[in-house]
Design brief:
- With 96 residues, this protein is mostly beta strands.
- The protein is built from no helices and nine strands.
- It has a four-stranded antiparallel β-sheet with strand order 2-9-4-7, with no helix packed on it. The protein has a three-stranded antiparallel β-sheet with strand order 6-5-8, with no helix packed on it.
- The chain is globular.
Length: 96
């Protein structure tokens, strides 16, 4: 499966974006972006697919996704009200 190129909504005067979500589920498509992503799973569980590797995740896990690395988080939550609570830091290591 070919990953989608995703654009993180970073403002031109910022080099780092911090994003905290409380959502029913993660973005469901295999994707990549030019920014590195440090993500803390504050609440939620499921499977992270990175390139051709699978990793289970649960509350409290932290992952670093490299720039342009294909990935998708698949939630285990059955009920939307359970949801997930990730905190992500996006940054461009090249500074652009």
């Amino acid at each position: 499966m070919k990953p989608l190129q995703f654009t993180i909504p970073v403002t031109p005067d910022k080099s780092v974006l911090v994003q905290e979500d409380r959502i029913p589920h993660f973005y469901p498509y295999l994707h990549r972006h030019k920014e590195a992503q440090l993500i803390w799973i504050r609440k939620g569980s499921g499977t992270l697919i990175v390139d051709n590797n699978f990793h289970d995740f649960t509350d409290g896990d932290i992952f670093l996704i490299a720039p342009q690395q294909s990935h998708v988080f698949r939630s285990n939550t059955g009920e939307p009200e359970e949801g997930i609570h990730p905190l992500s830091v996006f940054y461009d290591p090249d500074g652009s």
